[in-house]
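Letters spell out the chain; backbone shape is given numerically. Both lines appear below:
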Amino acid sequence: MGKKEYDQKFFLVREDVLPEAMKKTLEAKELIERGKSASVWDAVQQVDLSRSAFYKYRDTVFPFHLVVKEKIISLFFFLEDKPGALSKLLGTVAAHFCNVLTIHQTIPLQGRANVTLSLDVTNMSGDIDELLVNLRRLEFVDKVEVLSSGG
């Protein structure tokens, strides 16, 4: 007997550790959603996946940005201590139309500082993955992690 929806547990898993069939299921779902494939058959053919694997995983694997229903996220950064670093970081956040709710920064030690931001992403342009990619591209950012998402 299957678990009821409210009894199920969910996990956040990095893409690089997902089985290939799950990754291809996500690709096929995106092709269908974007109208790049007219049918499941077309989509699975394009990504080289069996229909049975697609149907096995289609209702169990989702991109992170679709699962996050709440519009508040907390991000942790490990930054180099450089003049203007926090300002540039916040500029990138603002460019994605995220609203900063809280900022916590530690005193820099050995040329590095920890920064935690709580963001309202209600009006965010793009998705969380795009924001994270752009934040990681900043030359002074050593690390970015999603600490939580919640309302």
Helices lie at 20-33, 40-47, 51-57, 64-67, 85-95, 128-136.
